[in-house]
Amino acid sequence: MKNLFLIIFSSLITISCHSQNPKDYNFGFESKTGKNELPDGWFSWGNNVVKTESALFHSGKKSVFIQSEWANNTGGMAYIFINNYKEKEIKLEGYIKTEKVENIAGLFITFGDQQEIQLNAKNVKTETIQGTRDWKKYIITIAIPKDTDKIMIGGFLKGKGKAWFDDFKVYIDGKNMEEISLTSQDLYQSADEYFLDSQFRTDSLSTQQINNLYQLGKSGDI
Fold first, then answer.
1. Are 181 and 19 in contact (CB under 8 A)?
2. Is residue 193 part of a domain?
3. What is the largest CA-CA distance in the chain?
């Protein structure tokens, strides 16, 4: 556990020192490892077929494909990230291609922990299309509620049809999210919430905790 903490702690310091470099959130769906159906970092929800597509895409070599043969089905893919941003507005851009969509397909943004995504909920913003359409860029913009801890973005298909999604981009107050530099404090808070399941907190070290780290470093047990 000590080794794991020091590795994470050291990694966070390294990241903060290189925070000017763009971060790859895989919004273009190009990275896919292992046997997962979806690109790295993305997950499926609902009851549609959702998978990576390598035969049809807007750019690069991959897109995400959603298909439904049932009028009552709803589902798609989503990506969650921590709201480390103090800004007020988020914009999602994405390219969509559709085939015989009888109800709707589109983009969405929502906030907080969602056990089940409800596209008609008050905290959800959507941009939707119908029918058969070639690749086109769609955009949705929404204010970020105060005290929001997580932001979720994605694409969906409701009802029968097929839809392909590619080349997503996220902007926070007009700034490309992949180019926004986070402060070391933001990174430490992220580690506290999502990596360190203990009472140890990097933003408020006690004298004893500092001494423990010092002694651990001297011992060479790393």
1. yes
2. no
3. 66
Highest mean pLDDT among 183-187, 189-193, 212-216: 212-216
For residue 13, tell me if it sits in a domain: no
Question: What local confidence, expressed as pLDDT, does residue 35 receive?
Answer: 85
Instruction: Give Cα separations from 156 to 68, 109, 208 (angstroms).
Output: 11, 11, 50
Is residue 49 classed as helix, strand or coil in its secondary structure? Answer: strand
The domain in which residue 137 lies consists of 42-177
For residue 70, the domain's CATH number is 2.60.120.260
What is the tally of structural domains in the chain? 1
Cα gap 36→51, rounded to integer Å: 9
Average pLDDT of the segment spanning 122-141:
90
The more confident residue out of 140 and 191 is 140
Identity at 135, one-letter amino acid code: W
Q: What is the 3-state secondary structure (H, E, C) of 73-92?
A: CEEEEEEEEECCCCCCEEEE
52 and 29 Cβ atoms separated by less than 8 Å: yes
Domain-located, residue 157: yes
Determine, yes or no, domain membership for 100: yes
User: What is the pTM (predicted TM-score) of this model?
Assistant: 0.72
Q: What single DSSP character describes residue 176?
A: E
| 119/105 Cα distance (integer angstroms) | 11
* Token code pair at residue 87: 């800004």
Q: Would residue 102 be called left, alpha or beta, if left means φ above 0 and alpha means ψ between -120 and 50 degrees?
A: alpha
Reported confidence tier of residue 180, pLDDT bands at 50, 70, 90: confident
Instruction: Examine the pLDDT at 17 and tell me if it is beyond 70.
Output: no
